[in-house]
Design a protein that fits this description.
Blueprint (H helix, E strand, L loop, with lengths): L15 H7 L30 E6 L3 E4 L1 E2 L4 E2 L9 E4 L2 E8 L4 E4 L16 H16 L7 E21 L18 E5 L15 E11 L1 H12 L14 E7 L6 E4 L7 H9 L2 E2 L6 E2 L2 E6 L14 E8 L7 E9 L18 H4 L5 H8 L27
Antiparallel strand pairs: 1-8, 1-16, 2-5, 3-4, 6-7, 6-8, 8-9, 8-10, 11-12, 11-15, 13-14, 16-17
């Protein structure tokens, strides 16, 4: 096919749709597992009592090395430098101590889903030790911790919030021993109907930014729903106005898919949209660029999840288990964030700080030393860093 548009410099970037789809990729089955809820302050959970929240996802810009899941290694450019993308969310590995009901973030990094590939992590060593024990004895024990790969994003919850005293699991107010004052937290009030918190005289504000951690199934629900929003224009907010023209190479402009001529199915097109491909014309390996037009404006741009207010809830899983599935009842927009919300409610949180990995010392206190082959305990994980101790991915 002929080139579509003018030549451009080779870039390996991704659009927002492609960035979101990266969150659905994970290490092969068997390296994960069900995790528990993380014990982080201000973590958002969609309601599961039949009600729904109106939320707006707030994109960040977080550097993340691109992973080749087939090669189990980082993707590198022609100069052998690791390709680093900027993602609107973060990915992390969560460990859940079953008996203590306590969660923390693992330290193995982006390659941690592949056995022996990540940075040093005592939690990972413990997980694989118990995994091998279960495999050898043919039972479901020992299992002191669970492991799950997750994504997290900032979210504006559009409801009244009140600054109220924090309570413990028994309903007692938590008191700061130094100040003798109660710890305070922002708690969501009722959007409609009787709001008991409103009568308490507490400080009130419109909306509150929280962090939303997703397991694989919930993330898949979000990204699948996002595919149906790309037909709307985020530039002029017009509905159903975006038309796809072609998928082209980002380096040379070669047309890979002409939407007026293609006979590919929607499933085949989605795979091409969301995966890296190699251009037969120039050899460039990367994501394709989607050439579009808006029938309502001259600067059309596909809408994403971040351009809509989402009505979200959780429903009981159909398999009869204890889990819940995320449900998006509707998307309102595309439109700007409501003017009643100030600057602080439009800015995402420092997710890398919130989800910072537990240090090796902290992991040792939580888990204890790893047993050796003869059943004795060693001082901790002995495997050396895969990049000579440097956290840089280049």
């Amino acid at each position: 096919m002929s080139a579509f548009g003018k030549d451009r410099a080779a870039v390996a970037g991704m659009n927002l749709r492609q960035q979101l789809r990266q969150g659905t990729k994970r290490a092969p089955k068997g390296t994960g597992g069900g995790g528990g809820g993380a014990l982080f302050r201000d973590q958002y959970y969609p309601p599961n009592d039949g009600t729904a929240d109106i939320v707006r996802l707030l994109p960040g810009s977080f550097p993340a090395p691109r992973v080749d899941f087939d090669a189990k290694d980082y993707v590198r450019d022609a100069d052998n430098n690791v390709v680093v993308d900027s993602l609107p969310y973060i990915k992390y590995i969560e460990y859940f101590l079953i008996q203590r009901k306590f969660s923390f973030v693992g330290s193995e990094g982006p390659l941690g889903g592949f056995k022996g590939k990540g940075e040093p992590s005592l939690a990972s060593e413990w997980y694989w030790h118990e995994w091998n024990e279960r495999k050898n004895n043919g039972t479901d024990s020992p299992q002191s911790l669970r492991r799950s790969e997750k994504c997290a994003m900032s979210v504006l919850v559009q409801a009244p919030f009140y600054h109220v005293p924090q309570v413990d699991k028994d309903g007692k107010i938590r008191i700061n021993e130094k100040t003798k004052q109660p710890y305070m937290v922002w708690k969501k009030g009722a959007v409609r109907g009787n709001d008991e918190l409103a009568a308490g005289g507490y400080e009130k504000k419109n909306g509150h930014v929280m962090h939303w951690s997703y397991n694989f199934n919930h993330w898949n629900t979000l990204t699948s729903y996002a595919n149906g929003l790309a037909c709307h224009c985020r530039s002029c907010n017009a509905q159903d106005s975006i038309r796809e023209l072609a998928l082209v190479c980002r380096s040379c402009g070669e047309c890979v898919v002409d939407f007026q001529e293609t006979t590919l199915s929607e499933a085949e097109l989605n795979k091409i949209r969301d995966e890296e491909v190699k251009c037969h014309q120039c050899g460039f390996h990367g994501f394709l660029e989607n050439m579009i037009k808006c029938e309502n404006c001259a600067h059309g741009e596909e809408a994403t999840l971040f351009d809509f207010d989402l009505e979200v809830t959780q429903v009981k899983a159909s398999d009869g288990g204890k889990g819940y599935n995320l449900m998006i009842r509707k998307a309102i927009g595309p439109r700007p964030i409501n003017g009643v919300y100030g600057e602080s409610e439009r800015k995402g949180l420092d997710l890398p700080k919130i989800y910072s990995p537990a240090s090796m010392e902290q992991q040792l206190k939580l888990l204890g030393p790893l047993p050796t082959a003869d059943g004795q305990q060693q001082g901790g994980a002995t495997r050396q860093p895969v990049n000579n101790g440097s956290r840089s991915y280049t």
